[in-house]
Design brief:
This protein is α+β, with helices and mostly antiparallel strands. Helix content is about 55%, strand content about 20%. It has 2 domains: about 35 residues; about 70 residues.
Length: about 110
């Protein structure tokens, strides 16, 4: 009887640990899939003044001049390696007012 009780306790403890871990993983995944509105709003507010736009091109981060269809520069930053939130922002396009801001954004994405 002692052994059966210990086995039952072990099974219940393992089930609770699995349930907790599963719940934690689901919240992490959900939080990473969306772009917080306040974060993207900060970039979107600049879109009228933006001279550059960062987007994804063939699996890499590309720099476009505003209004252009072809990238001015294709970087070596691979988009599949980026966080989901960064990839989602690149899908919408990340506006930058000047070259200094482009370089700062590329540094952030590349690190």
């Amino acid at each position: 009887m002692k052994t059966a009780g210990r086995i039952l306790l072990l099974v219940v403890t393992a089930a609770l640990a699995f349930s907790s871990a599963w719940g934690a993983m689901r919240t992490i995944r959900k939080a990473d899939e969306r772009i917080p509105a306040e974060v993207y709003a900060r970039y979107q507010a600049k879109s009228g003044r933006a001279r550059y736009l960062l987007r994804e091109e063939d699996g890499f981060v590309a720099v476009y001049r505003s209004g252009e269809n072809r990238p001015e520069r294709l970087t070596d930053i691979e988009t599949p390696l980026l966080r989901r939130a960064d990839r989602a922002m690149l899908e919408k396009g990340i506006p930058a007012e000047d070259l200094g801001e482009v370089l700062s954004l590329l540094e952030d994405l590349g690190s």
